[in-house]
Design brief:
Two copies of one chain form a homodimer.
Chain A lengths: L1 H23 L7 H5 L3 H13 L2 E2 H8 L3 H13 L3 E5 L7 E5 L1 H9 L6 H8 L3 H19 L1
Antiparallel strand pairs in A: 1-3, 2-3
The structure holds a DNA duplex (30 and 30 nucleotides).
DNA sequence: CCTAGATCCGTCGCATACGACGCGTCGTGC
DNA sequence: GCACGACGCGTCGTATGCGACGGATCTAGG
């Protein structure tokens, strides 16, 4: 039991540090993201629209594992910049389809290597054993919490 | 290298989901935290003060792996509730020592099993192999990013 | 003594992130 | 037809989280 407590602290410290490195500090200097002034969540949302197609706000929230209100706020700011658009569905007026505007559609293909360049590079240089350890660890942790 | 890209998406999805489950939704129904109305970061800060002793704002930020401004904000809200106090150091007036107020000092000992009860329980029920997988995975991921 | 640098702190603006609430819209049952 | 629940959406209030800035304070060098 004492070990579990200590391990919990260790896990939380790891997760906090990872979050900082990947979600907020994920933008490398002189990268596309830094130049465009977009944040990681914003790029993730645009990428989802380009790769998986346009969707409603609730669908986007599900894709990004975010709440509906958070997603709505991100769409707000992207819409204010003219990067995405909202259109009310004609057949069912409850739905609002979110689309990427045309100029972005093309540009995004170039940077579509993803907002997680830092993480992607790190994983590319990792050995198969290391990669497996990372994925197994995260899957195991989530499985433990789901019990 | 396409694999690295796919793995990066998987890792990010895991981290997002874990963050939601542990950092924000970590408060179980009818737990001490839910009753007190405190958030996980707030409890973590108080716990650090009780377990590791009073400290300055910068020291607290280092302990919690947070930025100084974020930590200052958390202290602000705890101070507004009368749970912690700020005292200017007499010898060096630049420093502000943050302390837990007396009523909290005693109460906190009871709930000092940690704000991560959910995670602690999950780890306690995990097999040694599972625990090792979790810790190895997180350590490997951080080592990869530090390269 | 006193200027320069270093250090700590608080604050600001912004972007996430959540739950709760209310509004409009669609289907269903009466 | 029509009330009523279900659903999607936007908004509000609040908390976290960051970088950047400026103010106050100590310390070292002249």
């Amino acid at each position: 039991m004492v070990d579990a407590f200590h391990d919990a602290e260790t896990v939380m410290a790891h997760l906090r540090a990872l979050r900082q490195e990947l979600l907020t500090t994920s933008m490398e200097p002189a990268s596309d993201q830094a130049r465009s002034g977009l944040t990681a969540p914003q790029i993730g949302l645009i990428r989802s629209l380009v790769v998986e197609g346009s969707a409603t706000v609730t669908e986007l929230a599900r894709r990004l594992s975010l709440s509906h209100s958070t997603t709505s706020g991100i769409v707000d700011r992207l819409q204010a910049r003219g990067l995405v658009s909202r259109e009310v569905d004609a057949s069912d007026r409850r739905y609002t389809r979110v689309r990427v505007t045309e100029p972005v559609q093309n540009y995004t293909r170039e940077i579509s290597q993803g907002p997680y360049a830092r993480l992607t590079c790190a994983l590319a240089e990792a050995s198969p054993v290391e990669r497996k350890a990372v994925l197994d660890g995260l899957e195991t942790l989530r499985a433990l919490l789901a019990r």
